[in-house]
User: Fold these one by one.
Assistant:
Number 1:
Amino acid sequence: METGTCYYRGLRSVAHIDRGRSDVRSFRLAWQVRAVPEDVALSGLQRMRARLEREGWTLVDTGVDRPGFRFRNPAGEDDVQQVEHVDARWYRETGTYTVSAYAGCGKLPDGFYEYTWPERDWVPEAVPGEPVTPPAARSATPR
């Protein structure tokens, strides 16, 4: 978990030029798992993509040379620097599955300390059943 500085907006920004707010931060969460088999990785990417599309997120990039994608939350498009987005990729050469999520400025949760946030061990497993096929890609350009 990494956090970034958020600045005042509107008329309040004039009184606080180049001074970050102490009550809100931007958040970036990144994780990766190594040695993920191809069938497990592709199944995970398909489920993740289908869920993001069901929840109204917009596809903005697909993996050209490796399986993966980037989605953005269309609800936060007013400030390009603060757009919420999710990236997911699988690297065939190492079997590394990566996911990162970014959220624009938000309130800090009680008890959050960036440098003591605990790490977790997790091993992915394939989900039984038929693979989920996401709907056709939509354009990232508003219509």
Note: The chain has a mean pLDDT of 77.
Number 2:
Amino acid sequence: MRAAVRGLGRGVAGVGVVVTLGVAGWLMWVLPGPQMGAVLGFGPVDGVVSVSRCYEATDAEGYATGTDCTGWYTPRRPGEAAREIVLDTAADEYRRGAEVEVRTARGRAYELSGAAVFNFGTAAGLLLVPFLTLAAWLFACARSGTVENGDGYFLVSLAGLFAAVVLGAVAGILVGIGTAVF
């Protein structure tokens, strides 16, 4: 009887690992994934934005999030209409008339910039760390067939959240330096 319960516990924990990782992947795809892909330059350039003005953008709480620019977007794909668009977290405060190659996601234009890499990289890290920690704990439970102590996993998740912010900042700084130099 005890072996059957232990086997059932292992199976449930194993399914929990798969479900947890599936939910984490889906949330990454739905939330910061498309913007992060556009910022990092995955895929071909979607079009060009002719900048009309740039301004300091703020979030819902009023904190500065970087420079946004508005302008006229001219797509490269035939059949797609030109329209006004926001260049989210621009790499520079462009002058009126500057043309910037962009990738689009969710109705906004993106380019490689340090602020955008920091914003979306940190968001991705803060989203993934809790799910990966939970999956690691469930995997440990599945391996042993018992409920493992989660104290160490909690501390690892706190360290992982801190590391996500630090790595996002470092990546943003390096991209900012790289875009300024090249």
Note: Residues 23 and 170 are 27 Å apart (CA to CA).
